[in-house]
Design goal:
The protein has 14 helices and 14 strands. With 461 residues, it is an alpha+beta fold.
Length: 461
């Protein structure tokens, strides 16, 4: 039996008999290759291979298990069953989603509700670090970037045009007539703002003024549609090498409302991933007006309230950002308190609504232009102190310590090796204090390829 104190062990111990009950014809059922990808800041995601024998044949399928977080939530409620039901319903539409196999709403099996879906092959543009600075979108040609953008927008349009009544998605809550679709969303985000406060006296002036402005300027939407909620390229799984859309993912923010909210979120999130990192939008990335026109062509609808919904998008993500930052801080990641009030979202809202700026815009270190240093302090067997100096993105390694580094990384030598080879998940290391990063975390992430290169070179010496 696996160690129940270990997350992977707990899942494997209890999931196999649970699956066996749902697959009575499966013989010699087993789970292998379980891993936890990505940051895991919202749902907890685990990948594994499920193998069994059936009618004399050995079958293996890649699976994804998504579970509600046990602690440090980003959202006040996790309707995990809604995500499952939405994707299962969309299998009957022209919006590509994974096949959904099973869900379990009781927490007794692995400690929290979960569902299991098929694991698909493909690639996704990363939000952190921004796809405008590294990764598949960065490495693509301008023509390929444009293709990825338009195909993601087409998925957004298909989602909004899906017949949610026919698909049986009214459980998301059908808004009342008039300004009901807007009022319903603003009521939710008002509760969200109260929820992220650690103390009732806590105040977020820019977000509070944005919420009031949205109430005062609420309008009657022309239509009520299925809204993806988190519409962005980072939630689209692309096939390689042609960048066809394999699946549309992450439906935890889905709602029934004005589809223009989805369109504005799509455009705003791309702007944020450029502005937050002080990165220019890459050639081939379609602009705001061009995107609006194309959405109108795809849907046949006139976009009339984009500016309103851009403020709505900035306010929503501003609240989510605070929740994420507080979660990361509780997990041991150093977070400057002023980021809760002075960030790209609040500055954007202040600019659009003519409010007093929440603070100065702090220049983000640009690893392609600035000189930066990263100090590594590794303890235990094989431990050492060394640092890298990077000029215009090209780094050199030095032994010892450097004064006032841009970023400092602390771990045991063994844990660092596990982080590099993927056997230790970064967020899990943060949660348990096995990885400590002080200073500008983005610098370390943006120089990850240089760090790997220098480590590989050192290992060959």
């Amino acid at each position: 039996m696996k160690n129940e104190q270990d997350t992977f062990g707990r899942i494997m111990t209890h999931l196999v008999p649970w699956l066996q009950k749902r697959m009575p014809g499966a013989q010699h059922l087993s789970i292998s290759g379980i891993q936890k990808p990505g940051m895991g800041l919202s749902n907890e995601t685990f990948l594994f291979d499920l193998a069994w024998e059936e009618q004399g044949k050995r079958i293996t399928k890649g699976m994804v298990l998504r579970a509600a977080p046990l602690d440090h939530k980003v959202f006040p409620e996790y309707h995990l069953n809604h995500q499952f039901l939405i994707m299962r319903a969309l299998r009957q539409s022209n919006v590509p989603v994974p096949e959904m196999f099973w869900q379990e709403e009781a927490p007794e099996v692995i400690g929290t509700p979960f569902y299991i879906m098929e694991r698909l092959s493909g690639t996704m543009p990363k939000d952190y670090p921004s796809y405008h600075g590294s990764g598949v979108y960065f490495d693509a040609t301008p023509e390929q970037r444009s293709l990825m953008w338009w195909r993601a927008l087409e998925m957004l349009a298909r989602t909004n045009m899906a017949d949610w009544r026919k698909l049986g998605l009214d459980f998301l809550g059908v808004p009342q007539a008039g300004t009901g679709p807007i009022d319903r969303q603003l009521a939710y985000w008002s509760r969200f703002l109260d929820w992220i406060k650690d103390d009732p006296s806590e105040s977020y002036p820019v977000l509070e003024k944005a919420l009031q402005w949205l109430r005062d300027n609420a309008y009657v939407p022309e239509r009520v549609c299925l809204c993806w909620g988190d519409a962005r390229m980072g939630n689209v799984l692309y096939g390689e090498p042609d960048f066809n859309v394999v699946a549309v993912l992450d439906w935890e923010m889905a709602f029934l409302g004005d589809p223009e909210a989805d369109l504005a979120w799509f455009v705003f999130m791309d702007w944020y991933l450029s502005a937050e990192y002080s990165l220019p939008r890459l050639p081939g990335s379609p602009g705001r007006d061009e995107t609006i026109r194309r959405y109108e062509e795809l849907t046949g609808w006139k976009v009339r309230n984009f500016d309103y919904n851009e403020v709505f998008a900035a306010m929503r993500f501003g609240m989510i950002l605070i929740s994420v930052l507080k979660k990361m801080k509780r997990q041991g990641v150093p977070i400057a308190d002023d980021m809760y009030h002075n960030n790209c979202c609040t500055r954007r809202i202040a600019d659009v609504l003519g409010l007093e700026a929440p603070g100065e815009h702090k220049k983000t270190v640009n690893v392609k232009e600035d000189l930066v240093t990263i100090q590594f302090n590794f303890t235990g067997p094989g431990g050492s102190d060394w640092y890298i100096v990077s000029e215009q993105g090209r780094a050199r390694r030095h032994e010892g310590t450097v004064k006032d580094p841009t970023c400092t990384v602390r771990a045991t030598a063994e844990d660092w090796r596990c982080l590099q080879n993927g056997t230790l998940n970064q967020i899990e290391a943060w949660k348990t204090g096995r990885l400590v990063v002080e200073g500008d975390l983005k610098v370390m992430i943006e120089l990850k390829d240089e760090i790997s290169r220098l480590q590989s070179a050192e290992a060959r010496v």
